[in-house]
Write a structure and sequence with these properties.
The structure holds two protein chains of two kinds. By secondary structure, chain A is mainly alpha-helical. Chain A is built from eleven helices and no strands. Classes of the chains: A mainly alpha, B alpha/beta. Chains A and B meet through helix 8 and helix 9 of A and helix 3 of B.
């Protein structure tokens, strides 16, 4: 795509109240968070709650720092699993959607099984996978199973939502199958595909965590979810909270990165990425 | 849908006819008889309007000529230049909506037909620039469709239809969604394009005034199924704002309206 800087007049003229509103929308959640943490700290201190029942936020942060060598290694393990599952889900989902789009027969034969794979709870599949596959592979497969369906169904929806008149135009000019796919169907499906990927990112993390928990008793795993389970057995509650905090942060970062990618790719033309002034 | 638009038979245009329909009918899968039987001849270089109420099959007729649909029976003949093999090459189609690719800028949208035909890039660039100029879009080549007004989008659609230098321009109520001021301007621009480029234009509209203003011949179609109702020749060589306000124009409009009226009676509104 070539780039062009259009004059953003309305952005310049944006009323000050809209900027204030944006500031409020950023500040409010932060204030709520700070108040919540303060309240939590206060409740724990005033009631002298022992850390193995409910650790105070300060204790959690202290654990996060002292246990960082252990936790960071676990975080890396979980992130790698999530990334592998996500990439596999993205490639598998998009490739399968393209295949389905090219051949109705294939779609009719396979789509029901994609649905079955999706509706069967992954937590129930994970123990079986752990029996038949090496642990690391099983964990990635779990992340893939939960991640790939939203990519598949969204991409399929996108490929089928091509503007009818544009399709007619391509037909009029004698476009080949490949040209129609490349110049019409893929760009039309892109916003849907990116939406699917955004969901898949979060789900891959969930899949990885579920599989790690299921694998936990088997021992060798060292992801964050495994740390949570392990710390639970040892009544190391502050470390459970610290690991949970890292998982949440990882989820937020994954979502943020995918949302940003989607915005950057679509900002030139798609409604979802345009400012209100347009 | 991968195949080039196939159906219209081609013959070399020695007879001076650009398009010839004989006994053409179209029955849709739902069993609705949309068209015909319809006979229609359009001479090369002629500007013909198909006029009729919604649902009278005029758009269907246009799609049959373009080869986007195949007739249930009858023959559709479209003349081709000898040096052009693909049906799509000699026909330009302007849809009711601008039908632009929102992800591509104006230049890329106009370039599309050439890209699909795998035309050499340098060659294509020249054609694209020319088409942009003809449609008055040279300054907007880098803009995206969403940044353009309805009238400008329609110009892009027109430029895209012109970029292959087609012999026949098929237009399906192209200006119906535009405001009157913009429509008048586009009408004038279309007329001057037609005068300069000498294309055959088949223009579908439901506006009596537009059809009289633009065309050499108004073909009035009857609704359900679409047939030829009446034909009115508009023998006016000079068109412009003077013509639009003349008594002659009003008389033609009255004549076309009268041709349209009896066809309407007894028909449910559509």
């Amino acid at each position: 795509m070539t780039s062009l800087e259009t004059p953003r007049l309305s952005a310049e003229q944006a009323a000050p109240q809209s900027r204030a509103l944006r500031l409020v929308r950023i500040l409010l959640p932060i204030v709520v968070l700070a108040a919540g943490i303060a309240l939590w700290e206060l409740v724990v201190r005033l009631n002298h709650i022992p850390p193995y029942v409910l650790p105070a936020p300060v204790a959690v942060f202290r654990t996060l720092i002292t246990d960082w060598p252990v936790l960071s290694r676990s975080l890396l393990t979980t992130l790698v699993t999530t990334l592998e599952g996500f990439v596999a889900a993205a490639i598998g989902g998009i490739a399968l959607a393209l295949l389905f789009n090219q051949s109705k027969w294939l779609e009719y034969s396979l789509f029901p099984y994609a649905v079955i794979l999706q509706v069967t709870p992954v937590i129930a599949i994970a123990p079986l996978l752990l029996i038949y596959l090496p642990q690391q592979t099983a964990v990635v497969v779990c992340a893939w199973i939960v991640g790939f369906f939203p990519v598949l169904s969204n991409t399929t929806l996108g490929l089928n939502s091509v503007d009818r008149n544009l399709a007619g135009l391509f037909q009029l000019y004698g476009a080949s199958r490949m040209q129609t796919l490349r110049y019409l169907k893929l760009p039309s499906a892109l916003p849907f595909m990116l939406g699917g990927l955004r969901i898949a990112g979060g789900l891959s993390l969930i899949g990885a965590v579920v599989a790690e928990i299921a694998a936990g008793s088997a021992g060798a795993g060292s992801g964050l979810a495994y740390r949570i389970a392990e710390s639970g057995y040892r009544l190391n509650i502050p470390r459970m909270f610290a690991a949970l905090l890292l998982l949440s942060a990882a989820g937020i970062v994954i979502y943020g990165l995918l949302a940003l990618t989607s915005h950057l790719v679509l900002r030139r033309w798609h409604e979802s990425a345009l400012g209100k002034e347009n | 849908m991968a195949e080039p638009a196939a159906s219209p038979e081609s013959y070399s245009g020695t007879s001076g006819l650009a398009v010839s329909l004989r006994g053409v009918t179209k029955v849709y899968d739902s069993g609705v008889m949309a068209l015909g039987p319809l006979d229609l001849d359009v001479r090369q270089g002629e500007f013909v309007s198909l006029l009729g109420p919604s649902g009278c099959g005029k758009s269907t007729a246009l799609r049959l000529i373009a080869g986007l649909n195949t007739p249930t029976s009858g023959s559709v003949r479209v003349s081709h230049r000898a040096d052009q093999t693909r049906a799509g090459y000699s026909i330009g189609f302007v849809f009711q909506e601008p039908t632009l690719m929102p992800w591509a800028n104006v230049r890329e949208n106009v370039r599309l037909p050439l890209k699909l035909a795998r035309a050499p890039v340098a060659d294509a660039n020249a054609h694209v620039n020319e088409a942009l100029m003809q449609a008055g879009l040279s300054e907007f080549a880098q803009a995206y469709p969403r940044e353009l007004s309805g009238g400008m989008k329609m110009r892009v659609s027109l430029a895209r239809a012109l970029v292959t230098d087609p012999d026949i321009l098929l237009m399906d109520e192209p200006f119906a969604a535009l405001d009157e001021i913009t429509r008048f301007r586009l009408n004038n621009d279309l007329l001057s394009l037609w005068r300069n480029l000498r294309k055959t234009v088949i223009f579908v509209t439901h506006s009596v005034f537009e059809s009289v203003y633009l065309s050499q011949r108004v073909v009035v179609m009857t609704p359900r199924p679409g047939r030829l109702g009446a034909e009115i020749r508009i023998d006016v060589p000079e068109r412009g704002e003077d013509f639009r306000t003349s008594a002659e124009y009003a008389a033609y409009c009255r004549e076309v309206s009268h041709a349209l009226t009896p066809l309407q009676s007894g028909q449910p509104g559509s």
